[in-house]
Structures are given as structure tokens and as C-alpha cells.
From TrEMBL:
Origin: domain of life: Bacteria
Keywords: CBS domain, Membrane, Transmembrane, Transmembrane helix
Name of this protein: HPP family protein
Regions crossing the membrane: 23-44, 51-68, 80-97, 104-124, 144-166
PANTHER family, A to Z: TRANSMEMBRANE PROTEIN DDB_G0269096-RELATED
Domain CBS: 240-297, 321-375
The keyword Cell inner membrane appears for this protein: no
């Protein structure tokens, strides 16, 4: 490898090339946010001159809010508190040390602003620019006094508010919501606690680039992708259980109950004379029907009521049948079904050869397949 290639790898771009959609979404969002902020300044200036104004670090805030909204540094708390506390600290510094050189004030302002933002868990890179701007433009900033904090907080809040509405309209998450994300991690089976994820972020110095929720979702997605790749070469026909337990639409519910009683299954496929799948009967539906339809017969057990003579001429499987839940062909790769299999609402996946039912796949079949691949 040549020296130029080595330098390009080490010093070149590390981020992936964005899509055109991402480019347009980020650029339009930032322009819209700053345009609305400018309109607000003009509107307020009509009634209260020089109350609000735009300042250069807002451009950097717009980059974070609209280009990297998932970053903890771009959250509303960081935008508003980071910019405001940096301005407040720098004002106090300028009043406390009026004779200090501009270079010294600039260094102390930026360093102190960073420390305060870290302390308040409001790290926001434009906050450092706010501190530097206040020092460099002290002649204009200092006479404003405490009033300087109003435009810093209001304009930062306006950009954050526009970001919330804009990203919601685009269908992109912006505000971090830890509880729902924690629920998603639990549902995905990720065996890591909030503390484990936080320790991983600290270990790799990523605490201010990702939240524990973001890391949890990434790990869960990586785990799912790895399983999907393993199962990509395995077809549904190789995984399915070919020993079918089925009923016909005219099967008496007594016989359906017998099957549920003798086999540990939660649902039964319903097929016609050509073995084509037309529906399914759930154990829960059968028991609900028994309870609701025979609640008056308190002296007999449910099983006795099912077994009584003449019941075979009663209701049949068709009366409780539901639509087929999910059907695939034998050649379908198992990796395509991970999302459905992860759902607790899927009782089984029907495997067809053309239109004929030839097998079913349950979560037990998938677990058995994964165990065999790990050997």
C-alpha cells in the first residue's frame, strides 16, 4: 500500500456518503429553522427593538439539530442550556477580569464553558463558540448585560422546537425517549442492562456521541442481522415440521378439543380436501367459546360438556376458524422471517408447496435450527 493510500485511509473521511434524501432533509431543515428564527427576530423587533438577534453559533446549532438529530449533543436541553450557560459564564468572566488580555479571556471562556456544560450534562459544541463570540465582540455584547441571555436562550429554543416538528413531519426520531427504547431492547432479547450499555459507551469514549438507548438499538439490530445472515442459506422447507396436525372445516369441535387436549399446541391449521390451507383454530378461541356458550351449565365440567352424546352434530371448526396468519413457500429463506418469528403474536408459519400445505414452522423449530448452526 502506497504512502498516499495510507494517508487517505487515516486522514480521509470516516463517515459514509449520505443519500440525496438525507442531504436534502438536513439542508432544507436547517434553512427552514434559521428562516423562522429570523422571521421571529423581525416580528419582535417591530414591537421591542433589539430584543432578539441572530448570532453565528446558531449555524452550528442548526447543523447538529438537523443533520445529526440522534446525537445527545443535539437535544433541546443541550441546545438551550449549552448556549445560554456559556453566555452567562462569559459575561461573569468579562466583568470579573476586565483588564485581562483578549487571548487570556478567550481561553478561560471556552474552557470554563465546556466544564460548565459537562457539569450540567448539556454539552453543546456551539456553546464554545458562544463563549468565544462573547469575548471577541465584548464591545457589543457586554453593554447588553443580562439581556444577552434572552436571545441566546430564545433563538436556541426556536431552532430546537422547529427541529422537533420538522423531524416528526419527516418521520425521523429526534427527542430521546429512554423508556420506550428500553422496552424495545427487552422485547428484542438483548441481555444488557442500562448500566452495561453506559459502561460500554464510557469504555470506548462514546458517551457524547450515543446514548445507551441508541447503543442498545444498534446492538439489537446487529444481533438480528447476524442471525439473518446465518439463516439466509437455510430454506423454510429445511426447518419446517412435516408431521402435520390439521383439521377440516367440518371437524366437530369435540374432535378439535381432543387434539388440543392430547397435543401441546396453541393453534391448528384448517385445510380443505386438497390439503390447501384455508384458516386456523386457536386453543384460546375454543376455550372462550366453551366458557361463554356453556356458562349456564355449572354442574358439569367443561370436558364433560364436550364429551356428552350428540355433541358431534353441533358446531364445527369453521365456526371458530380465523384467516391464515402467515404463509411462505418451501424455498423462502429463513432469514426473511426473523421479524415475524420475533413477534409473540405469530403462532406458526405455514409452509406451502404451491397451494398445498406441507409443513409448519414454530419458534421451537427456529431455535433448534440456530442451535444446529452453532455447533
Amino acid at each position: 500500500m502506497s504512502v498516499m493510500q495510507t494517508l487517505r485511509q487515516r486522514l480521509g473521511p470516516v463517515t459514509t456518503r449520505p443519500s440525496w434524501r438525507e442531504l436534502l432533509r438536513s439542508g432544507i431543515g436547517a434553512g427552514l429553522g434559521l428562516a423562522l428564527a429570523g422571521m421571529l427576530v423581525g416580528l419582535v423587533d417591530t414591537f421591542f427593538p433589539r430584543t432578539l438577534f441572530l448570532f453565528a453559533p446558531l449555524g452550528a446549532t442548526a447543523v447538529l439539530v438537523f443533520a445529526v438529530p440522534s446525537s445527545p449533543l443535539a437535544q433541546p436541553w443541550n441546545c438551550v442550556v449549552g448556549n445560554t450557560v456559556s453566555a452567562l459564564y462569559t459575561l461573569l468572566l468579562l466583568w470579573a477580569f476586565p483588564s485581562l488580555s483578549q487571548t487570556g479571556l478567550a481561553a478561560l471562556a471556552v474552557a470554563g464553558a465546556i466544564a460548565l456544560m459537562l457539569l450540567l450534562r448539556a454539552l453543546h459544541p456551539p456553546g464554545g463558540a458562544v463563549a468565544l463570540l462573547t469575548v471577541l465582540a465584548a464591545a457589543q455584547m457586554v453593554p447588553l448585560g443580562w439581556h444577552l441571555l434572552i436571545p441566546m436562550a430564545v433563538m436556541s429554543g426556536v431552532l430546537a422546537a422547529v427541529g422537533v416538528l420538522y423531524h416528526r413531519a419527516c418521520g425521523r426520531p429526534y427527542l430521546h425517549q429512554p423508556p420506550p427504547a428500553a422496552v424495545r431492547r427487552q422485547a428484542s432479547g438483548l441481555a444488557l442492562s442500562e448500566q452495561d450499555l453506559q459502561q460500554l459507551l464510557q469504555r470506548f469514549d462514546q458517551s457524547y456521541n450515543l446514548t445507551p438507548d441508541d447503543l442498545g438499538e444498534l446492538l439489537a439490530a446487529a444481533e438480528e442481522q447476524a442471525i439473518k445472515r446465518r439463516l439466509a442459506a437455510v430454506s423454510c422447507g429445511e426447518v419446517m415440521s412435516a408431521r402435520l396436525l390439521t383439521v377440516s372445516p367440518q371437524t366437530p369441535l369435540e374432535e378439535v378439543a381432543d387434539l388440543f387436549h392430547r397435543h401441546l399446541v396453541k393453534s391448528l391449521p384448517v385445510v380443505d380436501e386438497q390439503q390447501q390451507l384455508i384458516g386456523r383454530v386457536l386453543r384460546a378461541d375454543l376455550f372462550d367459546w366453551l366458557w361463554q356458550g356453556h356458562r349456564a351449565s355449572q354442574q358439569q365440567s367443561l370436558w364433560q360438556r364436550l364429551r356428552k352424546p350428540g355433541h358431534k352434530s353441533g358446531p364445527v371448526a369453521r365456526s371458530l376458524m380465523r384467516e391464515p396468519e402467515l404463509c411462505v413457500q418451501e424455498s423462502t429463506p429463513m432469514g426473511d422471517l426473523l421479524h415475524e418469528l420475533a413477534s409473540h403474536t405469530v403462532q406458526f408459519i405455514a409452509v406451502l408447496r404451491g397451494n398445498t400445505l406441507v409443513g409448519v414452522i414454530t419458534r421451537s423449530d427456529v431455535i433448534r435450527t440456530l442451535l444446529s448452526l452453532n455447533r
